[in-house]
Structure formats: C-alpha cells, structure tokens
Hints:
Elements: H1 3-28, E1 38-42, E2 51-55, E3 58-62, H2 70-79, E4 84-89, H3 95-98, H4 101-107, E5 110-115, H5 124-136, E6 140-141, E7 148-151, E8 154-160, E9 177-182, E10 185-189, H6 195-203, E11 212-214, H7 226-232, E12 236-239, H8 252-260, E13 264-267, H9 268-271, E14 273-278, E15 283-288, E16 297-300, E17 305-308, E18 320-321, H10 328-333, E19 337-338, H11 340-343
Parallel strand pairs: 3-4, 4-5, 5-6, 10-11, 11-12, 12-13, 17-19
Antiparallel strand pairs: 1-2, 1-14, 2-3, 7-8, 8-9, 9-10, 14-15, 16-17, 16-18
Helix pairs in contact: 4-5
Amino acid sequence: MNIKSIMDILTIILIFLLSIGAVICPPCDPPPEKPTDLQVIVFDVGQADCTLLKMDDHAMLIDAGNTGQDALVLGYLAEYDVTTLDYLVATHPHADHIGSMPSVVRTMERIDTVLMPDKGHTTQIYGDLMDAIDEKGIPIKIPTPGEVFQWGAARVEVLAPNSPTYRNDDLNEYSIVLRVEYGDTSFLFTGDAGEISESEQLDRGFLLKSDVLKVGHHGSRGSSTQQYLDAVAPSYAVICCGAGNPYGHPTPEALGRLAGVGAEIYRTDQNGTITFTTNGTTIKITTTPTPPPPHLYIGHKNNLVVHLYTCSSLPSPQNQVYFDPDTLEEAIDAGYNPHAACTNYSPMS
Ligand SMILES: [Zn+2]
Ligand SMILES: [Zn+2]
C-alpha cells in the first residue's frame, strides 16, 4: 500500500468520525451562552461613597453614602430593582461610607454576608449599623488579603487591609480594598485607603493592574501615590466627591498623577452617577446627571445654623428652614450662622 492509499483511507476514516460526531455532538453541547453584563454603578452621593455591582440576579453594594442620605441610597437601589445583596461591604467605619447603611440593612429582603474590616468606631452611626446587622442576624466576615471569592461570574480578590493596626488609628487605612475581575476586564475598589495601604498592597506583590480604579479617599493628596497608579495603570478613574466640599477633594496632586498615567477621569460632582457596563471584553461608560437639590442651603430653625444640603448634620425635616434666594448671603442676612464644616464659610475679620 502506498502512502497515497493510506492517506485516502485515513481521510475516509476522518470524514466518517466527523460525520458521527456531527450527529452525536450537537445535542451534548450547551448552546453558546450570551455573555452576561456586569454593571458597576458609582452613585452620586456627594462627598461620600456608594457603589453597586450588579450581574444577573447578583448584587453587591460597596459602601452606602452618608448619614441623612437614607432615602437617596434606598431610591438608587430601588431604581435598579435591588432587594437582595450577596455582599454588603462597609469598607471602613467612617460616616461618609456607612452613614445610610443601617437603613440598607433594615430594608433589604436578604443580605448574605457583610464584609467589614476588624476595626470598630465609637460613633452612634457605627453602633446603629452593628445593631441593624445583629437584628437581621447577618453574618459578618472580616476578609483576609489574598483571599479570593466568586461572585456571580466574577472573581473577587481581597487586597487590604494588610496590618492589624495603623498609625494614629487612621480609619481610612483600614479600608477593605477589592479587585473584581470579570472576563478580561477588572475593577479596583479602594475605599479611603491611603499611602500606607497602597504601599502594603505593592509590597505583597498583588496584581493591581485594573481597567477601572475607584480612586482612594475621594481624590485626596495622600492617596493615589505614583507607584500605586503605575501598578494599577487604570484606563478609567472614578472619583466620588461632592461639589464645593470643604476638603478640597479631589486635590490637584491626585488629579495630576491620574492624568499622568493616562486615566480618563470621571467625577460624581461633575458627571453625576457613573455606570460602567462590561460583557467581560469591552467597557461602556454612561453618566446620568444628578438633578439639582430642591434647596442648596438648609437652616435649623432652633439653633439658627445654616448648612449646605450635602452636610452630614442637617436638621430633621420639621426643623428645616429654606431661603429665597437660595444663597448663603440670604441665610446670613436672615440671622443664620454658617456651619463651618460644610459651607466653607469664614467670616471677614
Ligand atoms: Zn470617605
Ligand atoms: Zn474615611
């Protein structure tokens, strides 16, 4: 038998096998699945953090706005039909991250796990959050850096906090940092982590490279160090900050470093709510402007202090007084004292 005949026979066998395969295999193969979208929604909650991750019927909420934003945060969740959470993440116990979380805990039909760092706080809001979690009997998990868990079709890795305690008891450095990978896309959520946390993540050799970075600590000077940004190399950076906030966030330093690594910058104070939608391959970005508040300045009728509407210590609705025109000058003329922490007002001497 010459080589050609052998080849002919092999070809016939191959065609025969393929024809059997063609008959047998199609029913065994699952139909090609349409890739599911992961939506990362960075809500505009002013000078505070609140981010929802949604994929099919899976949902994870990272931080829940400031105190007094209960209706706003619950409204956002309702808008996305979120009634259950697989994970509720309290990155660290500052009020601008857990402020409306007790309401979220009490309102959701089901929350499987609360993730928080091993760090408490003495504030009333922290106590209230712990009470709410306890009332609902939700298990609290303190995540360990290096730990990986599956959420929907995404892979989540815990990158921080890496130390049991931090200098000056800086609560921001205790922030839980999560890297979420879905298909070829990746997101890094850093809470208010500062330069110590960032250098620890670098020292541990974690994979930081991410397409989208939720910028640490509202774009403060002490976060988003050059080495960290070089490692993350984000295509998109999203900053949660309130217009005219008294901290000067985001700082020109952080903005400069982000621009320096070529990140396209989105800000809740300018873009409103920012949504990243990915099928695991490409990322689409949409922004939804936040409607202006009904009242910019809100006075307290009993103590005659006037606050910016985003302040965390607004008077209760029955004690609120509004001004027309809605300006700080009008409030002062009416005998109100500007709350220094939110109005950024310093009287002329
Ligand atoms: Zn914060
Ligand atoms: Zn903080």
